[in-house]
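call fold(seq) -> tokens
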Amino acid sequence: MTAETRQNTTKLFNVHAISTTVPLFNRRPFPQHLTTMARSKPSKPSKPQQPAPSSPSSLPPWPKFKPPLPVVDLFPTSHPLTNKVVTLDAFFPRSLCRDYVAHLSALPLQTTPGTPRRGDAVRVNDRLQTHDASFAAALWEKTGLREALLQDDVASLWGGEPIGLSPNIRVYRYTKGQFFDCHYDESNNVALEADGKTVQARTTWTLLLYLTGVSEGCVGGETVFYPHDRQSEAEAICVSPQTGMLLLHKHGDDCLLHEGREVRAGEKWVLRTDLCIRR
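ret:
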């Protein structure tokens, strides 16, 4: 969907990269239902991170990719109204999504405070953040994602040469009544390890993997984009959670104003990381 609206750390998490979300400000009239002060939309990425330690995460091992991925041919599809929003259907099979939800449900997620910090978008959800370069590499190399994003018809979208995913892995759970109000996602400079070397990179797209959808009883929770930096139902680009679907959207200077709408029933589970290009 980078430094996030709030940094959550516990003794279980070794967090080296924070994702930032920046709310709507200074460009169009500020939505009245937002209660936070405004910062301007970011124009520069944050300072580079240091390479990650080899085994920074103390979380239990992630479930293995069973069956082996991909289970279907992956075809990145740009939204018909904008090339800043791309989806890949059936990136994870339903069985693997169930395994991941069961795994993540046993972990100690933290609920975001009801009152945000000055300048932060209003959000209410349960979340976990961890630095895991091995898992990020597996998502990139062992799922068919790398090959899918390098296809000729979409390769030019990413802003440069994609070389991997951010090791800053975030888990979001939205239950009934929880939401993420209008905001932008920032771009970050990161350092990735590749072939034993440190490669300087920059994040350009947010990746959201939906682990639940309507079939699991999730009602609401749509990710909604507004192309003209203002809330307008007539212009809204609405993406409903679908189990196993991967949603990518451009962030940084070209990020669309977007929100995660309130979940009205069930639970919405999301895995978040970011696409990295070579600097």
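Residues 1-20, 22-40, 42-55 have pLDDT under 50 and may be disordered.
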